[in-house]
Each structure stands twice: as structure tokens, then as C-alpha cells.
Write a structure and sequence with these properties.
814 residues; alpha+beta; seven-stranded mixed beta sheet; 27% strand
Length: 814
């Protein structure tokens, strides 16, 4: 919301400096995002009179003039041809700058210089150089200089001649969604009035030129969707003359970022900014009725697939959720969002129908999002407006149109308001104010604060009072809201800070936080970098059953339309971001929450996910393995380290025989062979190509809540061994389907004495190895904590291991 200092002062008296107003608005809860000081638009430009006009000695198309600027005579070289001696024209003096025009970043500054060998001390200006519409200021539009009125005072500042002298300040305010009343100049002025104690000056509406013809003979309203449009008003202004807006209106709108269109449309925009109520003006004669009957305004839903061309000349395809304003032959406006091209105000418009309505915020927001069409109107309607201001805004717009376009207002209007809301009242117990704010504020001051915001007392008792809530304060719902208003006006900065009265020593979440920190410590220690992805992702990226996805009712965009059911889509997006910036060797992890739909109930759980791609290690100048890429073993090793350091025992890896929608090959990770913890695998190359990933990508994801519940947090210490170890190697042929886990299980079941470690150090397929088999080599380490083992003791234990391998795995020693 943008507002100017001078505009605010039209509704409330205050003498704060621009800087002080910034501070005051901030303390009231209005965040000031930007402040732009606008100097008088025509500083350094004065009314001058041409005394003589002679031919330039060195140029046929230039004139050499003597002009009077009110202080002295000066020599000016000019190329215009539409003036003569005695004319009064705008003169920009040396050192001043022309007003900035659209697309310009730096102003053009006038200097004393020579033009074709003759000095020129300033420049006579055209309307184009000044950025003016001459007709809007009552002057003739012609090529050349802007010729001023004969009664113009020589030496008078040009801005004063136009009637808009002085500087102004534009404030860019961030309005919170719960305060739609502050999306208006009057709403902000009301806050200032409450703070200063000065009266709020609401414009008095009085029609000086009206017609007595009943409006029912010209138009009717048929509201098919009262739930989506609880109130609709229609008012007609006849015999208008559409043209440029006066300078004060054009300037006001342009300062806050709106382009002037014509006097009628500009009035609707001005009133919207003034009171926060969006309006729309229709050309009455473009509304069609049924035969000879007068036109009927119909508020209805769009038909599925219905086409409609909005004011921006774009044809839009609507759903049956969109609300339309229509006549009996066609739609004429997209309710609350934008009007139609087929009924817009144009230069030949004579009669105007003013629409002022209240639309259901949820419907306007859904329509705006669906069509990706955001307007000042939809911005206000979707936040919930003031249902009680519709008629006032309509009358205010009609009055201004009459003043600026010379129209006549029909004496009555149509106001379809079937179910006015019951008056809202909230009771306040004054003792609760002290309980919440920690200070004592006299009861009469609390009443005065609320009354200054338009909430008068309707009933009072000892220690309490009941306040009437105006329709523009849609955020006021309970007693604490009243207390918040009291605190704002009293001054948050005046409430002293006090030490806490007590604090809890610990919280149940503390241990969870410590465990999450431990997961992060372990993974960063293993060389991975932590990422933070978006909770909202695109449905197309999820690759999970559609029934398990939690979709948003009103998504911000198609790229953020569901709650993530997995952390992996986010990790893949971050991998692509890194690779697009030439970072090809990436190892990442994320800890976060995911959301799934379980039989209609949203299930939320915490997960941890890993992603690696690229080279296994950074290249070293003398290394021989500098191009080695990550593979599944690297990922499995990271997972094993994580689970082991996290205190989980009995973890098993079971390879899946088939590929999935995400993995080329993958494995399920279970606890004790039964309880699923998560999965890991290699991303399908086709998906990797979609994400522009150059190398193979390996992913893993685990239910972190389950890991936390099953971990063994106990730590034990084991002294370093004092006695030497003995190693025995075994190379054997086993069936191709034999897994490393199966080998370990066979070794474990042998129960060999003093077996300290088992390590796989070679897998071979090829020459000398029969088809359907593979050669694996293991190192077995034996050690006793009490003595040095003899060869007989080691061999006896080792023979049990070999025998069990041969028996259970059909292993053949090589």
C-alpha cells in the first residue's frame, strides 16, 4: 500500500516530520518498507516571457531569443516555431533538471552552453519535455513550446502556475493480511487520528445535480450466488463527459504508482485507494437486456470452460468456481478481479453504472491464483473488505464523477444486501489488560483508545465494558484483540521490560533436539553438506502414488502445489542447482519433515535423506585414482557409518530385484530383517537427465522418527588391544546371488573363537570364474584380549568358519 504525506493530511491534522511519521507508523504496526521524497516536480522551472525573437546567425531553423524570467533578461537559443515575442512559456534555468520520464534512470540537467556558436542560458520547454498532457491542464496541444495563459505571472514557479507546488513524501507500507482496513488512506489516517487525538475528516457527500427517475426502470440486479456475493450495489451517473483527469487527480494516482486513464476510471481508482473499497465502472449502454427490457446485472458462476476477455485484452478460460458479473447475453466482469473489454469506459461513454460490492475472499483468491491475475482489486477483496462501506464508496465515486465529468446522479441506487451481519460486540475486563500488558492503564483511557478507533462503548459495568466493533475491523474477534489495540495506542515502547517470573528447567523436546544435532554432526563429519529444501514442491516431481499426496487447496504456483511426501525431490533440485554452476562433485543431506495422506488423514514424520554424485574424492596431483566416481558402495558405507554411530544394531540391507519409478537399483534397509527403516539406491538415468545431472546419482532416505525411537544411546569403552592379531584370507566361488550380508550371517553362525573382524577386499568376475558365480575374497582377523594366540588356535577357529561357508553358501575355495 502506497500513500503520500499530503494525501494523509487531507483527512487528519498532524505536524510530524516525514521521519517522525515513519517512526509513528512503525510503532503502530505498519511496517514502512520504503520512503521516497518527491521534490516539487518542476523545481527550477519558471514562467518566462519572450521579449524578442530573432534568427540564429548560424542556423536557419533556430531562433535567438531574449526572455524575461522575472529576475533578469537572458539569452536563449530555441528550435520551436510556434511562438513569437510577447508569449509566456515555461523556462528551465541552468542547473535544474527536467522531470524524469518512463524508462529514464537519470534526469537531464540543463547547463549553460553554446548551440551553433551562440551561448544559451536555459531552455524553453514543450509539454513533452515536461511530461505533461496539455489538455489535462487546460492548454492547447500543439507541436513546439507549451504556450501559457496571458494572465501567467512572469517569474512565477511553474509548479505554482499548475497549482501543485510543494514537495511530498511517498510511503510504501507493508500491510499485514489481518488488517485490510489499512489498505486505504482513510484507514491509515484513522490510526493517526487515534494517536494524535485529532478528528478524522471523512469527506461529506452531497449530490448537487440529481435525477428523480427511478433506477428500477434502467437496470435490475439478479444475484444467483449470494454466498459468494453477499452485497451488490449499482448506481447510475448520466450525461458524463469522459476526458482527461484534472492535474490533482493525475498527480495523486501517479505518485502511488497508478497510471491515469480518464476522469471516470481514475475516480474509481482514487476512491478504492481512499477508502479501500474496489469499484468498477461500466458503460451502461454496453450492457444488454432481453429485448426491450432494461439490462439486468446477473451475478453468477462461470460455466466450465467459458471464455472471457478481460480489460488487458487477454482471453481467459474459466472454471465453474469463478464468479462473473454478466448481463443477459454475456459476461462483463470477472468479479472482484478485473472488468471486461466489452463494457469498458471509453471516450464516447455517456452513462456510467458504478458497481460497489463485497465478494467472498476465498473465492476471489482462488480465481486470482488460478488465472495468475493479480490486481489492486483482487488484492483487497481476497483479504476481506468492509461489507458496510459499499454504498458510501459508490456515493463518493458518483459525487466525484459529477464534479469532474459533469454528470447527473440518479437519486436512488440498487443495494442487494440480503443478510446484513449482526452487530458485533466484544466485552473487555479491564483487569485482563493489566494481566497481559503488565501495566496499569486507567479505565477511562482504555475506553478512549478504543473509541478513537471507531469502537464506542455500548454497555459499561464496574470493571468491564462492552464495545461495538465496526464492520471495517474484521480482525477484531475476542477480548485479547481489544487489549492489543490498547497496547498499540498506549505505546509499546512505553511498556517497561521486566525479567521473567519463572522458567522451566527442561523440555521434552530438548533430547530430540540433541539427537537431531548428533545426526547432523555425524553426517557433516562424514563429509556431507547440509541443505534446507522447500516444504512445498511440484506434484510432478514427487513420483509417489497420487492418493498419498497432500495437495494444497490454493497453491501459490504449479511448482509449489503439494506438501512434500519425500525429501528426495528437493535434494535433486539442489543437485541440479549445484551442477548448473559447475559444482559437479556433491554430497548432501537434509533433515526435515514430510507429509503423506494415510486414508484421508495427513501423516507428518521427520526424515533424513542423503544424495551423492561425482568424484569419490578431490583429485590430487600425484593420485592414480583421481577420476574414480561415487558408486553404491560409497552410499552404503555412509549409511552404515550413520546408523552405527547413531547406535543402531542389527541393520540389514535387502536388494530389490526390480527397478522402481525412482531407482535403477535399490535396497530396503530394515532393523532385524523386519522393521523397515528406509531405502537407498541409484537414481534412474532418465530422471538424472531430466535434472541435468551428468554423473550417476545415489540417494538414501530414512524415517528419522523411527531411528530416534530405536537407537541405543548407551556408550561403552573398550581398551585398545594389547596382544597381536592373526589374519587368514579366504578366496572362494559363490553363486552370483549371494550377498555380503549372507556371508556375514554364515560367519556369525560358525561362532568361531576369537574372531575379531571380517573384511571383504575383492570381488572378481571374468576369466576362470564359471558363469552364474563370482569370486569373493575375505580377510578374517583373530585376536584374544588375554593372550597371544597360537597358530593351532587360530587354525582351529578358522576351519569352523570355512566349513560353515561351504555348508551354507555352497562355497568352493580357490
Amino acid at each position: 500500500m502506497k500513500v503520500t504525506l499530503n494525501w494523509l493530511k487531507q483527512y487528519v491534522d498532524f505536524n510530524w516530520s516525514p521521519e517522525e511519521l515513519t517512526e509513528r507508523l512503525t510503532m503502530l504496526g505498519l511496517e514502512v518498507e520504503g520512503v521516497q521524497k518527491i521534490s516539487a516536480a518542476f523545481d527550477g522551472i519558471v514562467v518566462a516571457q519572450v521579449i524578442t525573437r530573432d534568427k540564429h546567425p548560424n542556423a536557419d531553423k533556430l531562433s535567438l531569443c531574449r526572455v524575461n524570467d522575472g529576475a533578469a533578461e537572458r539569452q536563449i537559443v530555441c528550435g520551436a516555431q510556434n511562438f513569437k515575442a510577447g508569449y509566456k512559456v515555461p523556462l528551465i534555468l541552468p542547473g535544474a533538471s527536467l522531470p524524469l520520464k518512463a524508462g529514464e534512470k537519470e534526469p537531464f540537467t540543463i547547463k549553460v552552453g553554446k548551440i551553433r556558436g551562440v551561448e544559451s542560458h536555459g531552455m524553453l520547454c514543450s509539454y513533452e519535455e515536461l511530461g505533461l498532457d496539455p489538455e489535462a491542464i487546460g492548454h492547447k496541444k500543439e507541436d513546439g513550446l507549451l504556450i501559457l495563459r496571458e494572465d501567467a505571472k512572469v517569474g512565477q514557479p511553474f509548479a505554482e502556475y499548475l497549482g501543485r507546488s510543494g514537495s511530498d513524501v511517498v510511503y510504501d507500507l507493508e500491510v499485514t493480511p489481518n488488517r485490510p482496513d489499512l489498505n486505504s488512506v482513510i484507514g491509515i489516517a484513522r490510526e493517526i487520528a487515534a494517536l494524535t487525538g485529532n478528528a478524522l475528516k471523512i469527506p461529506v457527500i452531497q449530490f448537487l445535480n440529481t435525477e428523480s427517475e427511478p433506477i428500477g426502470g434502467l437496470v435490475s440486479v439478479h444475484n444467483v450466488e449470494p454466498e459468494l456475493c453477499p452485497r451488490y450495489t449499482a448506481r447510475i451517473v448520466r450525461k458524463v463527459k469522459v476526458g482527461p483527469s484534472p492535474e490533482w487527480l493525475r498527480s495523486t494516482l501517479e505518485k502511488v504508482g497508478l497510471r491515469s486513464i480518464n476522469n471516470v476510471v481514475d475516480v474509481t481508482n482514487y476512491v478504492m485507494l481512499e477508502c479501500g473499497q474496489p469499484l468498477h465502472a461500466f458503460d451502461y449502454h454496453l450492457l444488454k437486456g432481453n429485448g426491450a427490457a432494461p439490462p439486468q446485472i446477473i451475478i453468477r458462476r462461470a460455466a466450465a470452460g467459458e471464455k472471457f476477455t478481460t480489460l488487458d485484452a487477454k482471453e481467459r478460460t474459466l472454471t465453474d468456481q469463478a464468479l462473473l458479473i454478466a448481463d443477459e447475453t454475456k459476461a462483463v466482469a470477472l468479479a472482484g478481479v478485473m472488468g471486461g473489454k466489452n463494457s469498458e469506459i471509453h471516450d464516447n461513454t455517456v452513462d456510467v453504472l458504478i458497481e460497489s460490492a463485497y465478494f467472498k475472499p476465498q473465492n476471489i483468491r482462488a480465481t486470482s491464483k488460478k488465472l495468475e491475475l493479480r490486481t489492486d482489486s483482487s488484492y483487497r477483496f481476497e483479504r476481506g473488505g468492509d461489507v458496510g462501506i459499499c454504498d458510501w464508496a459508490s456515493r463518493r465515486a458518483a459525487q466525484l464523477i459529477c464534479d469532474l465529468a459533469g454528470g447527473q446522479v440518479l437519486g436512488h441506487a440498487i443495494d442487494d444486501f440480503r443478510s446484513p451481519p449482526a452487530p458485533k460486540q466484544i466485552a473487555l475486563h479491564f483487569s485482563r489488560t493489566k494481566d497481559l500488558l503488565g501495566i496499569t492503564i486507567p479505565h477511562n483511557e482504555q475506553i478512549a483508545f478504543l473509541a478513537s478507533l471507531g469502537m464506542p462503548v455500548t454497555e459499561q459495568a464496574p470493571g468491564s465494558a462492552t464495545f461495538s466493533i465496526p464492520t471495517w475491523r474484521v480482525d477484531m474477534k475476542r477480548e485479547v484483540d481489544l487489549i492489543e489495540e490498547i497496547g498499540r495506542l498506549y505505546g509499546v515502547d512505553k511498556i517497561p521490560s521486566t525479567p521473567p517470573r519463572g522458567a522451566l528447567g527442561s523440555n521434552a523436546y530438548d533430547s530430540v533436539y540433541d539427537q537431531l544435532s548428533e545426526v547432523r554432526r555425524i553426517l557433516t563429519g562424514l563429509g556431507l553438506n547440509e541443505t534446507q529444501g522447500q516444504t512445498l514442491v511440484a506434484n510432478a516431481e514427487c513420483r509417489v502414488p497420487a492418493e498419498s499426496i497432500v495437495a494444497l487447496a490454493n497453491p501459490l504456483s504449479s511448482d509449489m502445489d503439494v506438501l512434500r511426501p519425500s525429501l528426495l525431490p528437493g535434494l535433486l533440485t539442489i543437485l541440479r542447482h549445484n551442477l548448473s554452476r559447475k559444482n559437479h562433485d556433491v554430497a548432501l543431506f537434509e533433515v526435515g519433515r514430510v507429509f503423506t495422506n494415510a486414508s484421508g488423514q495427513v501423516k507428518e514424520e521427520r526424515r533424513v535423506a542423503l544424495a551423492i554424485t561425482g568424484q569419490r574424492a578431490q583429485a590430487f596431483w600425484s593420485g592414480t585414482d583421481r577420476d574414480a566416481k561415487c558408486d553404491m558402495s560409497d552410499l552404503k558405507g555412509l549409511v552404515e557409518d550413520l546408523l552405527e554411530q547413531f547406535g543402531l544394531r542389527g541393520v540389514a540391507f535387502g536388494k530389490r530385484a526390480e527397478s522402481t519409478a525412482l531407482y535403477l537399483e535399490s535396497a530396503a534397509v530394515t532393523l532385524g530383517g523386519k522393521l523397515p527403516l528406509g531405502e537407498l539406491g541409484q537414481l534412474l538415468p532418465t530422471l538424472g537427465k531430466k535434472y541435468d545431472l551428468r554423473d550417476a546419482v545415489y540417494l538414501a532416505e530414512f524415517n528419522l522418527d523411527l531411528l530416534l525411537s530405536k537407537r541405543n544411546a548407551a556408550k561403552s569403552f573398550k581398551a585398545l588391544p594389547q596382544f597381536p592379531s592373526s589374519r587368514r584370507d579366504v578366496a572362494m566361488l559363490v553363486p552370483e546371488a549371494t550377498t555380503h550380508d549372507a556371508v556375514l550371517q554364515a560367519v556369525k553362525q560358525a561362532k568361531a573363537a576369537n574372531l575379531d573382524a571380517v573384511e571383504l577386499f575383492d570381488v572378481f568376475r571374468g576369466q576362470g570364474v564359471p558363469a552364474g558365480q563370482k569370486s569373493v575374497a575375505y580377510a578374517f582377523t583373530y585376536r584374544s584380549a588375554e593372550k597371544t594366540l597360537t597358530d593351532i588356535e587360530v587354525n582351529t577357529a578358522h576351519e569352523k568358519v570355512v566349513a560353515n561357508l561351504q555348508q551354507q553358501l555352497s562355497a568352493v575355495l580357490r
